[in-house]
Amino acid sequence: MLFQDVLRFHAKDQEAASIDADILRIRFVHDFSVHPDKNKMYIDALKRIYQTYPKVPEAAMARFYHAETFAQGGSYLGRKAYMNGINQESQLNYLEAHKMASEIIQAFPNTEASYQAQILIAQIESQILQLQMEKVILPQKPALVFVNYRNVSRFYYKVVALSHEDYKNTGSIITNIALNLPGEKHTETKR
After folding, report:
1. Confidence bin at 89 (pLDDT 50/70/90)
2. Phi and psi at residue 89, in whole multiples of 5°?
3. What are the two backbone dihedrals, phi and then psi, of residue 148, each rounded to the nearest 5 degrees?
4. Residues near 116 by Cβ (< 8 Å), separated by ≥ 6?
């Protein structure tokens, strides 16, 4: 009811304030709704705003929030893409989010939506490399390592056995090593 009152108040007032209030209302409903189709309805409502007001800078925030949902996974958008039998949905979502963010920056420079889009592009283009493995590995048994990466063309690794004595003598375990990616410092975190 409160958002409806705000929208009615700004309907005769400024277009920008009305758009901003409508975006806040849509995000509020999306965040607290339990409707099974809330994600589709959220995207449809955002599209309605930025397609109705294509030249209004405040409406660009609706387009940014749409791009952000693509970057956050976007699987609920109903977008399925398969190339060569391999699901490439997340790659296409990042491409779509990057494209939308670039369009926002070009169409609405020096706006809040443009600044947010620049941050989103930086996040999409950042290099990520994560390795996960079990803490305990049985002797003479295969061990699995899960490698998750984005925007990394190659990395080199070496597996080194650590004896129980070496483990005890070090007094600490290196739990996280930031790899020497271009422009990054080599750091170690000890526990």
Report:
1. low
2. -60, -45
3. -120, 130
4. 61, 64, 68
